[in-house]
Amino acid sequence: MVLADLGRRIRNAIGKLGQATIINEEELNAMLKEVCAALLESDVNIRLVKQLRENVKTQINFDEMAGGVNKRRLIQRCVFSELVKLVDPGVKPFQPTKGKPNVIMFVGLQGSGKTTTCTKLAYYYQKKGWKTCLICADTFRAGAFDQLKQNATKARIPFYGSYTEMDPVVIAAEGVEKFRNDGFEIIIVDTSGRHKQEASLFEEMLQVSNAVDPDNVIFVMDASIGQACEAQAKAFSDTVDVASVIITKLDSHAKGGGALSAVAATKSPVIFIGTGEHIDDFEPFRVKPFVQKLLGMGDIEGLVDKVNELGLEENEELIERLKHGQFTLRDMYEQFQNIMKMGPFSQIMVSV
């Protein structure tokens, strides 16, 4: 079950309770059964689903509930808080420091979208005024450097790699040293894709980590592989100190529940989610707004952030002209340009 269907199923299950204050335990159990079934079909780990069910039942005691309480709203609030706990390990995510080099190393499975995600992250920080760059330390996959080179060129991001050097440790160390000396602030190292059965590649990943001493290790997780995510996430976390998670392919075609529940295996926060192939299909992950959107509550906070990024209040000339009732065609053109900067309109509408 894809995430859009999961949200709809949970909303429908809660909606069946109606607005009435007369809700008994039998109706609560039926609602929880449907919510849990939806979560299981979306590949959320059965252990976590069982915990969510028990926690909701513990919080709602009909015998001790005061008369006139809107039980439906209380149940919805309990389900919301438990879904938040499901995807929030309670760990503060890494924040890069402006004005100094921040080395970020990417690890993950083959085909999880690491190289594309590296470019998306570099582009995201570049738009915010950071000096970003990319290093291709993937010598295992044919065409990896060509892909990174093409992506980086398109996004106008400096990059480093080699067609002749076969040792990823050497490439990573040289690239990081070069960009440190050049004063870059976000240095992203892309490594070879691997899985937990490949001991030699895991050893190589550890060597790259030791060579570049990353400030943040990001595990890129493919939302479409389901519950296999958890075992793989644990294997990566046991080898290197995974500090953050990015979930890719979290669009309408991916289940995503397995990836979300695998966050518990790494005990690391999800920092971004990829929702498509384009460089703009990438957004910061905030737990509460994500669950709000899942339950159809909207994400006004996210919309406000998008508007704030435009820096409209800094345009004092426009504000002064508007005060005097002046609005030219050029002003209208600039406002259309600002709307375009907010990204695809579908992303804006889903926040409302």
TrEMBL record:
Signal peptide: none annotated. The keyword Protein biosynthesis does not apply. It catalyses: GTP + H2O = GDP + phosphate + H(+). PROSITE patterns: SRP54. Residues 269-282 form the SRP54-type proteins GTP-binding domain. One of its GO terms (cellular component) is signal recognition particle, endoplasmic reticulum targeting. InterPro entries: AAA+_ATPase (IPR003593), P-loop_NTPase (IPR027417), Signal_recog_part_SRP54_M_sf (IPR036891), Signal_recog_particl_SRP54_hlx (IPR013822), SRP/SRP_N (IPR036225), SRP54 (IPR022941), SRP54_euk (IPR006325), SRP54_GTPase_dom (IPR000897). One of its GO terms (molecular function) is endoplasmic reticulum signal peptide binding. Transmembrane segments: none annotated. Keywords: Cytoplasm, GTP-binding, Hydrolase, Nucleotide-binding, Ribonucleoprotein, RNA-binding, Signal recognition particle. It is found in: Cytoplasm. GO terms for biological process: SRP-dependent cotranslational protein targeting to membrane, translocation. PANTHER family: SIGNAL RECOGNITION PARTICLE 54K PROTEIN SRP54, SIGNAL RECOGNITION PARTICLE SUBUNIT SRP54. Belongs to the GTP-binding SRP family. SRP54 subfamily. The NG domain, also named G domain, is a special guanosine triphosphatase (GTPase) domain, which binds GTP and forms a guanosine 5'-triphosphate (GTP)-dependent complex with a homologous NG domain in the SRP receptor subunit SRPRA. The two NG domains undergo cooperative rearrangements upon their assembly, which culminate in the reciprocal activation of the GTPase activity of one another. SRP receptor compaction upon binding with cargo-loaded SRP and GTPase rearrangement drive SRP-mediated cotranslational protein translocation into the ER. The M domain binds the 7SL RNA in presence of SRP19 and binds the signal sequence of presecretory proteins. This is Signal recognition particle 54 kDa protein.
